[in-house]
Structure formats: structure tokens, C-alpha cells
Amino acid sequence: MGWMEAIAAAIQYVEDHITDELTVDMVADHVNISSFYFQKGFAMLCGFTISEYIRNRRLALAGNDLATGDERIIDIAMKYGYDSPDSFARAFSRFHGVTPTAARKDRVMLKSFAPLKIKLTLEGGYLMDYRIEKKEAFTVIANAKVFPYDGAKESVPQFWQEHYQTGKGKTVMGEYGINIDEKMGNDTFEYLIADSYTEGKKVPEGFVTRTIPELTWAVFPSVGAMPDALQDVNTKIFTEWLPALKEYEFAAGYCVEMYDDPTKYPKGTQDEKYYCEIWIPVKQK
């Protein structure tokens, strides 16, 4: 199954099971893609996480049920996966801007959230530089934190800000940003702000070491001011390179961003020639 076909199948699976028990792992398993890369790719393509999509679809449908039917609020809450009226009311109010009780009244404005539809358009013919490179195992020293996939787009940049604001940048400058989800099927992942580590060197309190195993990587260069240039490459990986991928598939739950030394550039990371890379582990099909 190709990447775009897998996303379309995942969306259909969600719609078919919207009132059933439904987890990210179940959706990823259905399309035979690791949860790690499925969640990352889905968010890149769709602009929100698969969990957000499921939650928004359920709350939109719940609003419609309340406005047009006579089911009890507790029954609608249970139908869409909420264990209590209170948790349902909080989520419903955040999404619709009104309480479930108010949604029963006439002329109350509710929000809709339509199912995603994958449309195939004639694209491609793009130039995208990458190389396949086998790298030996290497060890890093890192400031590490575990994040849920939901909200990671906002929380990881905040982690970088905290890293430097608290003075940890004096110990780890930030040569790498590394995602680790070894089981490739968790709701969370470990994120490292990391530098190369010299064996035997003392590890200060508050820091850890992690060893990235020997792997074959697809390496994508990025040239330009951060973060836009890197985000553009990341988006192209999942919207252009991956859908056209025939020879390789994902190999492990790692994703590495390698950053060049900003002091080498007149404008640092904002320089139009600033260089960094994205590494994705792959194996031949």
C-alpha cells in the first residue's frame, strides 16, 4: 500500500469506527505503518495529529446528535468515548464554545468538522536532494524529555527555549534534535537536545546519554534560515519523497535533525546559507 493510499485508508477506518474503541495504534496497524511514522506523516500532511482528528470528528458528530436528536447527554458522551458527563462537557465546550446543555437550544451556533478527503492531483517533477548513508552507532549527551505526540509541534520548540534560558546550552549546545520511539507504537516519544558524547566523560546532573544504533539513513540537506527551511524539507519528505518511495521503507523509531555550528554563519541560524540535515532510518523493501 502506498503512502497516500494508506492515509486514505486510515481516514476511512476512523470514519467506520468513530463510535468504537479507537486508538492511534489500531489505525496505524490497520494500514501496516508504524505508529511512530504514521503519526508524524499524518500531522505533516493534514496539519493536525490523528488523535486531534478523531477527537474533533467525535465532538462535531456529538454536536449534531445533540442539536437534532433526543438522546440523553450521558448516552452521547459514552457513544463518543467519554467516561463521564464532566469530561465530555469540558471537551465539548472547548470545541463548540457552548455547553452540551446549551447545544439543545434553538439558534445555538455549533462547529462542524468534515471528514478528510484525499484528492490526488498531478504533481511531482520536483528536485529533492537526498543520499542514502550507513552510519555507525554513535552516543550523545542530551537534555531529554518525554512528550505526547499531541501538541508536540508547540511543546518541542518550547523545550528548546527552556534549554537555553536555564543555561543548559552551556553544557549541550544542540548539535542534534532527536526523536526516539523505539517501539514505534507509543502515544509518547523521547526528545533529545543533544551533542556528540566522548566515552568516559562525566555526565552532569540533569543530562543523560543515549546510543543511536548503526542504521542506514536517508539524509536530507536543508539550506536556509531556521526554522522555515527545515520545516519546508520536513514537509516535502512526507508529501513528495515518501509518496514516491518504492525501494525503501522505514527501519526504526528514530528521527535525527543535525544542526551545523551557527557561529560559522554571519547571521547564525537565520543566515540564508545556514545548513542542517534530517536523517530518517530506512531499509530496502
Describe the structure.
It is a single chain. This protein has eight helices and nine strands. It is globular. The chain has 285 residues and is of the alpha+beta class. The mean pLDDT is 89. The protein has helices at residues 3-16, 24-30, 35-46, 50-68, 73-79, 85-96, 152-165, 228-241, and strands spanning 131-135, 138-148, 176-180, 188-196, 208-212, 215-223, 248-250, 254-259, 275-284. The longest helix has 19 residues, at 50-68.
Topology:
Layout: H1 3-16, H2 24-30, H3 35-46, H4 50-68, H5 73-79, H6 85-96, E1 131-135, E2 138-148, H7 152-165, E3 176-180, E4 188-196, E5 208-212, E6 215-223, H8 228-241, E7 248-250, E8 254-259, E9 275-284
Antiparallel strand pairs: 1-6, 2-4, 2-5, 3-4, 3-8, 6-9, 7-9, 8-9
Name of the CATH superfamily of the largest domain: Regulatory factor, effector binding domain
Strand proportion: 15-25%
Instruction: Profile the largest sheet.
Output: 9 strands, antiparallel
CATH fold annotation of the largest domain = Multidrug-efflux Transporter 1 Regulator Bmrr, Chain A
**What would CATH call the architecture of the largest domain?**
Alpha-Beta Barrel
Number of domains: 2
By CATH reckoning, the class of the largest domain would read: Alpha Beta
Residue stretches low in confidence (pLDDT < 50, at least 5 long) are none
What share of the residues lie within helices?
Answer: 25-40%
**Mean of residue pLDDT?**
89
So how many helices? 8
Name the shape in a single word: globular
Rg over CA atoms, rounded to whole Å, is 22 Å
